[in-house]
Amino acid sequence: MAEVQLSQADFEPLHADHEIQSISRPSLSYWQDAWIRLKSNTRALISLYIVVGLLAFTLVGPLLWTVDPAAQDVDQISLPPGADRSATIVAPYEPWSGSSVMPIGAGLRLADEATSEAVRLHWDPVPGAASYSVYRSLFNVGSDRALGLPLVDLFGEDTSYFEDRLDLTPRTYHYSVIAFAADGSELGFETLEVDVSRVITAEQALERGLIRTIDEVQIGDEVLMALHPFGTDYLGRDMLARLMHGAQVSLFIGIAAPLLFVLFGVVYGSTAGFIGGRVDQAFMRFADFVVALPFLLFMILFKIAFGIGPGESGILPMLVALVLLSWPATSRLVRGQILQIREEGYINASRLLGAKNGYLVVRHMIPNTMGVILVTLTFAVPSAIFTEAFLSFIGMGVAPPTPSWGSMCNEGIKTMLTTPHELIFPALFISITVLAFNLLGDGLRDALDARMRSTE
Amino acid sequence: MWQYTLKRLIQGVITVWFIATATFFAMHNVPGDPLINDRSVTEDIRANLEEKYGLNKPIVDQYFIYMGNILRGDFGISFTQENRLVNDIIREHFPVSAILGILAVVFAGLGGVLWGALTALYRNRLPDVVIMFLVILGISVPSFVVAALAQLALVNVNDVLGFSLLPVAGWGTIWHMLVPSMVLGLGTMAYLTRLMRSSMLEIVNSDFIRTAKAKGLPPTKIFTSHQLRNAILPVITVLGPSIAAITTGGFVVELVFAIPGLGRYFVQAVQQLDYTVIMGTTVFYGAFLVFMVIVVDLLYGWIDPRVRLE
Prior knowledge:
The complex is a heterodimer of chains A (456) and B (310).
Chain A: H1 18-21, H2 30-39, H3 42-59, H4 61-64, E1 86-90, E2 109-110, E3 119-122, E4 131-137, E5 149-155, E6 161-164, E7 172-180, E8 186-195, E9 199-201, H5 202-207, E10 222-224, H6 239-275, H7 277-292, H8 295-306, H9 315-342, H10 345-352, H11 357-393, H12 405-414, H13 421-448
Parallel strand pairs in A: 1-9
Antiparallel strand pairs in A: 1-10, 2-3, 3-6, 4-5, 4-7, 7-8
Helix pairs in contact in A: 2-13, 3-6, 3-13, 6-7, 6-9, 6-11, 7-9, 8-9, 9-11, 11-12, 11-13, 12-13
Chain B: H1 2-28, H2 43-53, H3 59-71, H4 86-121, H5 126-140, H6 143-161, H7 174-204, H8 207-214, H9 219-256, H10 262-272, H11 275-303
């Protein structure tokens, strides 16, 4: 082996190229990185905008649209959005007992213009008739004679007029008159289609705030009834106001309940995971039992057990029941994470540097599970909203008159065939909210946690 | 396997006991009492009635009597329906719910596997996009809305056809069961489709698929006997909890379609505060669900031996 001659110069450090070591890209924290990834996900971003929009609708909406959700507009009941809301001013109502002269025409006919104040009917007396029965139907009577609502039985051959003032709304009615002989046999049957127009007296218009002074309008003028952009429900309550206030209930439960039970789950799970051993075993066994409880059955049971006092909305009991039954899933997840992190090198390093247990949990373990916790939270929101809607739908949710989207669906489903907007609007709001939170959850999961990334 | 079965059964029994206990104490906490509706009850009558029903005993005694009765399978008498045993109510109405539930589970399971496999096969192509869009809708629309819309659609279809293609509500024949069970299974089917799709896509890249390809198996054979078979495993695990979701989801579907099942009865009992029926139904349903989860887990342990070792 050849001898190597070392000189002093061999021990001189080489020229160090510092430029190579400089960081060319900005350093990103975990959250900045996650935010960039979320922003590149169009679906998640749109969902985020929808969620922000819904929050604005819930919180700012009632400030802009200040209609009382419990106020009943008796003139406009079950009205779809965009319905005609003009009304003609008429003179105050005067009693009527048949026209002195028979109106022109034949058969069953109107004695006067049909208005929402009164429909005045006349028909030709049927010879030998002992009584007449008058019916009113919302639908075509047809050949099978679906007569509808019986209005009156009139006795005497000559009582051939009738005035209907029962709960008239501006729409089409089908009136029928049947003439009966003294022995009860039918002598004649006639039916008439009547289009009722909306009228209002000047006093009523003033009372409802449609005009400022009574002299402002003359008989025959048109006034516009109160505006309901989303229509009204079966009690004449404004749908938009109810949707906004219902959103407050639904979103409050949907967001507050997950926050509370995730918080509890984190505390419970991290305690179990950090202490480990017997305590962990006992904690997790208990969580297993709570998981095994049939969720909706016990939601209902707890709701009954807490009870709703008079004048209470029943939001708080539902919140408590949701929290009581939903925490175990989060606690299991957090415990698993903590168990994993506990063995990591940086925890040991921190411990060697003298970190106390509490510091370890708060400074290292919880921040490192934060991504998973946030994803759980986002997915918990739609399921909480669903639960609230489900319970309100079967009448076990918030107590009337407090609106919630679920209870609005429950009310709307009864008149689904005639006024579908009462069901469709709250159903649409539930669906969009749940959809937005689900897609946002997917996006967050992809952005925050590489291990849980969905296979796309 | 026997040891595993035994372990699961013991856990199940303890869980049912926990459910029964929780039910008992929750119901005891309910404000008011069962006799409050009868205005004519005087002090003496009330005392006699409490004596008869054992309501004047200490709560611990009541608890043991209640547990003893449950062990003998006796859930008591309905409070609101005279002379009807809770057992009779369950016996009469549960089979209806069970048939509806079984059909829904079958529908959800088969549909989920089928659609999931299809979307994975046509990944990022038109069928995948369309089905996944429908799946997202299925997850986001509440079951009562789906039920209402399905009923509305039925009404319109029958109206257009001029004769009754399928009954709109009620119970009795297989035709009555078709639409409600599909509505009931829809949410679960959407969930299972998603699960099946991601599990299929995960498996595509695994080693044993590559091996199968390398040894020259035809693609259809790889798909059916390797990919599908392994991808189904996660679907089976969630089938247990899904049965619970479908059973309770049945309440609403039974309500909307006027099906005389136990779910509708339960909702009615809750509204009328029929204590014994509520307690009986809850414990019965709870036991049933625990049992179903055990069955599914055992099935899973039988299909995939790895779980038994845990």
